[in-house]
Amino acid sequence: MRIVNLHHGGFVPTLRKLGHDVLSIGTTPDCDVRLTEPLSHKRLLELLSSHAFAPDLVLWFDACQPPWVFGLESLPAVVIGYSVDQYMHPWHVPYSAGFDAFCIAQKDYLPLFDLPGLDRPCHWLPLFCSPTRDRDPGSPRDIPISFVGTIGARANPARKAFFDTFRTQVPLFVRKGLYAPIYGRSRLVLNQSAAGELNFRLFEAMACGAALLTEDVENGLRDLFTPGQDLLVYRRGDAADAATQANLALDNPDLATIAASGRRKTLARHTVTSRAHTILDMARQAIADNLPGKRLANLARIRSEMAKAYAFLATDDSLGLTGKERQFFLDMAKRGWGE
Asked: Burial letters for 238-270: b for 16+ Cβ neighbours within 10 Å, e otherwise?
């Protein structure tokens, strides 16, 4: 397939390895086309023409940022979206109207995407690991318990207090930045989320061979893993219980067995390659069902929903957009699409 990948480039190497021709467009240096300003529908068509690239599939992979490429709902190709952080970005719900199929990483949010008058299917597609990066180096596991991530993030204000309490009872090794070398030396990795979501850390830590201690949450956790067998859990938000479970785990002679079970299941079922195959299968089914044609015949309904997404972006104070950016999305909401 000829595939345009938008925003997050996590699937690009895998799709190319699977033999597909991929043009990546986004705001990061690794993209084939690096954007410095939003790309209108007209300029997107000009860009594709200049690259002599007529896509079979356009894949939007959520990079936790506002959209920068517009008019996707008007493209003749199959258009598929993958929302990672829908729990903190309500605009993803009406935005999903412009796609032929839409994937949601958090299972409990799936009903929100059931919008009347739209044919596009929505699927629960959990997050994943990348085995080329997330692997067990076979090193001595000389770090008892670790966490790699941001402590003071605005999206997760409860994390600092949780960790402050936890560290009074357990010597937690905390770092920012590259996680794989740390997880590859850890016996246990502590996971804490913003909203009870199944985040990337859950899959990455287990792929690196560490046992995982994570919150006992919904969003399909038990559909994917068995607590006590593949990973360990604590009561969400309860730092004292997390500390108790961590100390019990570090004294557990079967901890390495739990880590091995979690790693096997993660690598067998929850990799970037397995998710890429699922998305490609969706694209083939969308072609067979002529979903792009159905979308193009329903543009008025679709654009009314997408205008709501732009209104969300213009008015949501939590997103931290500038006044100029807010006005841009307000204008988009009034116009309804990215001409």
From this structure: bbebbbebbeebeeeeebeebbbbbbebbbeeb
Estimate to the nearest angstrom the gap between the alpha carbon of 221 and the chain centroid: 16
Burial of 131 (0-12, 13-18, 19+ CB in 10 A): middle
Reading the chain (339 residues) residue by residue, the pLDDT tens digits are 999 999 999 999 999 999 999 999 999 999 999 999 999 999 999 999 999 999 999 999 999 999 999 999 999 999 999 999 999 999 999 999 999 999 999 999 999 999 999 989 999 999 999 999 999 999 999 999 999 999 877 778 889 999 999 999 999 999 999 999 999 999 999 999 999 999 999 999 999 999 999 999 999 999 999 999 999 999 999 999 999 999 999 999 999 999 999 999 999 999 999 999 999 999 999 999 999 999 999 999 999 999 999 999 999 887 888 888 899 999 888 875 545
Provide the token pair at 100: 């032929």
For the chain, domains (ranges, CATH) are 2-128+272-335 (3.40.50), 143-269 (3.40.50.2000)
Are 236 and 196 in contact by the 8 Å Cβ rule? The answer is yes
Q: Which amino acid is at 282?
A: M
Beta strands in the chain (DSSP E): 2-7, 21-26, 33-34, 57-61, 78-83, 101-104, 122-124, 143-148, 173-175, 186-190, 211-215, 232-234
How far does the chain reach from its first CA to its final CA, in angstroms? 27
Give me the residue label for tokens 């006992």. Answer: 216
Model-level pTM greater than 0.90?
Answer: yes
231 CB burial (10 A radius; 0-12, 13-18, 19+): buried
Q: Say if CB 237 and CB 162 are below 8 A apart.
A: yes
**Whether 231 contacts 262, CB under 8 Å:** yes
How far is 105 from 109, CA to CA, in rounded Å? 9
Sign for the CA dihedral angle at 185, 196, 133, 150 comes to negative
